[in-house]
Amino acid sequence: MIENEEQLEEALSRPTPADVAAMRVLDGDLMLLGVGGKMGPSLARLARRACDEAGVSRRILGVSRFSESGLAESLQAAGLETISCDLLDRPALEALPEVPNIIFMTGRKFGSTGQEWLTWAMNVLVPALVAERFHRSRIVAFSTGNVYPLTPVSSGGPTEDHPTEPVGEYAQTALGRERMFQYGSEKYGTPVVLLRLNYAIDLRYGVLRDVAEKVRHGVPIDLSTGMANVIWQRDANSVALRSLAHCQSPPLIVNLTGPEMVSIRRVAERCGQIFGVAPQFSGSEAPTALLSNAARCHALFGYPSVTLDQMIQWVAHWVTIGGRNLGKPTHYEQRDGRF
Question: Which of 9, 19, 112, 318 has a 20 to 30 Å separation from 274 between CA atoms?
């Protein structure tokens, strides 16, 4: 079991042989835009460790506003270069170094309702500016499964060829983000991969953490969204790193998640077994959910290394010992697209 944040950060940034091999052959330095988010620090450390194990001298740069105290210093201590930059500040964006490999992680979701204008700026304007500024680079850009509509659970989830029908303004801006990178790729021939992620699991946040907390504290779990997809955060970050080798124009789109549809009821019952309590439920499962079929991802990169039950056990133990909660619920149960 993972007992503290030091162990957790080590596990999240531990490279696989495939990560090391990818960094060994990658051409040039790597810059992460939006490194200060939930996934960025562990991805930056993963890239650094993979390069070091590959014996490759490569700059790994992390760009963020660095509003979290101490984050820049901790990344620097791990061997990364940090640059403080607001990507909406065009002169600051232009001043960023020319780097051949870009992973774009910037985005805004929660708090969108009531400040839709800011969400549009962060999720559409910033990608447009980045696509222009780094049109000579390879770009791997994180997107979201929210660009898909709610689909029948019986369908197994949309593939990348399914029509996009985003529900709500956040999801609309997420599709706008994709369209800006597609525009840049079409205009300049920029090689791009778009990763439609849902949902990454870290012990401090994520769908499994949301469910485990409610089971532990006797809070009824809304079953209206009865299914979800999840993937261990390190496995998601590994795909992001290895996607640099698959950048193309027009962009390659990849659904990034685990192989199974996860029953929220079953997750709650498994957590209940571990905690020794009976989970409380409200409502019943709707026939549709926000889902993704990740067969393309698994064909390209293999199956995730961490299983669903292992994630549940880790999360349940973390909740039991009072491990830190980032206080950022996923709101996976929202069906109206309002975040």
Answer: 9
* Residue 221 placed within a domain: no
Angle at 221 between CA 156 and CA 287, to 5 degrees: 30
34 domain-assigned: yes
| pLDDT the model gives residue 151 | 96
The average pLDDT across 174-199 equals 97
| Cβ neighbourhood burial of 98 (10 Å; 0-12, 13-18, 19+) | exposed
Tokens of 191: 């090689």
Q: What is the pLDDT of residues 15-58, one digit of tens each?
A: 999 999 999 999 999 999 999 999 999 999 999 999 999 999 99
Contacts 24+ apart (CB under 8 A), 96-100: 96/31, 96/63, 96/133, 97/31, 97/61, 98/136, 98/137, 99/28, 99/29, 99/30, 99/31, 99/59, 99/61, 99/134, 99/137, 100/27, 100/28, 100/29, 100/136, 100/137, 100/138
Which pair of tokens denotes residue 176? 């706008």
Helix axes 5-12, 40-54, angle to 10 degrees: 60
Domain span at residue 51? 5-200+233-259+291-304
The per-residue pLDDT for 113 is 76
Helix (H) / strand (E) containing 17:
helix 17-25
pLDDT tens string 288-317: 999 999 999 999 999 999 999 999 999 999
Q: What is the DSSP letter of 219?
A: P
Domain count, the chain: 1
CATH number at residue 188: 3.40.50.720
Burial class (CB in 10 A: 0-12, 13-18, 19+), 335: middle
